[in-house]
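Q: What structure does this chain adopt?
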Amino acid sequence: MPTHPAPADLFRHGLQLLLEKNIPAWVELWDDDGVFEFPFAPDGRPRQLAGKAAVADYMRGYPDHIDLHDFPDLEIHQTTDPRTIVVEMRAVGRLVRTGSPFEMTYIAVVTVEKGLITHYRDYWNPLTLLQDPASDFTRSSR
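A:
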């Protein structure tokens, strides 16, 4: 029986991949049928991505727009379901186009099964887009 990383370890590994700007490897952490949800997404932004291909398409241009430097204040909480974690974190970096600082606070609820992300509910702050539209990497190629 294969051994899979604990959800918290997989999540931390995913953060490291994002810092390395290795989006293809980050996408490989997803189950083919994984669901990525954005409950606070403003109008015109996706509220749900279904499947690894949709996640890959969504994230493709991320490093061209947001240069992540760190995830300080990372806290990972285990839930009563051993497959699910709740993550509190802050991402810091810079916006590539403008050179402006980037800072985003997140709460995420992530479920991992057999070593792959099957569900990721991302409660990011949409007010950041109003403060600096350059942070909206999803609009650049659509």
